[in-house]
Specification:
The protein is mainly β. The chain contains two helices and 19 strands. Helices cover about 5% and strands about 60% of the residues.
Length: about 300
């Protein structure tokens, strides 16, 4: 009809717009650390479960120094000397004292337990792109002390690390964004005490709503994760772990729900283990914790509750 323009095909317009959009490969984002490829799935599927009673108290001395006190009272599993599959637990109690210094370019954190274990961590940012991290565990138990040094360099669209540890442990990894959503990486390692070496490959794809990642190593282990963000408060996660050498397969699904004053995480896996972890923020500077885990196959039941004060 005269006076009317022809209808516009919006699908063709959207397709043409996407084709016209050119990716600036010289300005890709910086990827996550290689060791944090699965961080979203880890947060949902592997909360810090505990058994018994736990009390944590953190005290800030000023803007840079703080002290921490932790008490954990609950059972500890010990090896069963008999052929029976029954799990043996004995009551234990531990106290940890910690101190820390946090600065924009340096942090130092140390913790010591009543069992005589000293755990120390440090990180120093030499420049905006170059940092050094060190971890150490000192104990009087034979062959249990550990030391670990990590050198991290961050480029505009890539990251690389060199790791050195005691017992002749050497490792290096590299990861880079190849598109705005896809990053690829690899690693190589040498374990001197076990006289074993290996290489690994990884991929991570992320959008505003989803994160998918996968890793495979020459040791025969393959790991795949997928996280879907339903809303700002709710996410679902799943993972799949396959060991080619032992033919072990484990799959799990879980959720992460965040409300105004609480966070609830839970999972169930193919081994018959169901777990849930609740953090409730109270209005008086306290955080209430509930932890539960049920292993239907081993008939092992764990329940814990705790309080964080700050």
């Amino acid at each position: 009809m005269e006076g009317f323009s022809p209808p516009i095909n919006t699908a063709q317009v959207d397709a043409k717009t996407k084709l016209d959009e050119k990716v600036d490969y010289s300005n890709l984002p910086c990827p996550v650390l290689y060791e944090e490829l699965n961080r979203e799935a880890t947060m949902a599927l592997k909360p810090e479960l505990f058994e018994g009673f736990r009390l944590d108290y953190n005290k800030s001395l000023n803007q840079k120094f703080f002290l921490s006190h932790s008490i954990l009272m609950g059972p500890t599993e010990v090896p069963n000397p008999t052929p029976s599959s029954e799990i043996i637990k004995i009551p234990t109690a531990n106290y940890d004292f910690g101190a820390g210094f946090i600065d924009p370019k340096l942090y130092l954190i140390g913790r010591i337990t009543t069992e005589g274990r000293l755990n120390a961590r440090a990180k120093f940012d030499l420049t905006d792109n170059f940092s050094v991290k060190a971890n150490a565990l000192l104990t009087d138990e034979e062959d249990k002390s550990q030391g670990h040094l990590v050198i991290d360099y961050k480029g505009s669209d890539y990251r690389t690390q060199l790791q050195l540890g005691n017992n002749s442990v050497y490792a290096a990894n590299y990861i880079q964004h190849v598109t705005p959503h896809l990053s690829l990486g690899g690693e190589a390692f040498w374990l001197g005490q076990q006289l074993m070496s290996g290489v690994g490959y990884a991929a991570r794809y992320e959008t505003d709503k989803t994160v998918a990642s996968g890793q495979i190593a020459s040791t025969g282990v393959a790991v795949m994760n997928y996280v879907h963000k339903v809303s700002e408060k709710l996410s679902f996660a799943t993972d799949f772990i396959y060991n080619y050498l032992s033919r072990d397969v484990t799959a799990s699904v879980g959720y992460d729900l965040i409300t105004r004053q609480s966070r609830l995480r839970g999972k169930v896996d193919s081994n018959g283990v169901v777990a849930a972890y609740l953090e409730e923020q109270l209005p008086i500077g306290l955080r209430f914790l509930l932890s539960a885990e049920v292993d239907h196959v081993k008939k092992d039941y764990k329940f814990g509750f705790g309080v964080n004060a700050f």
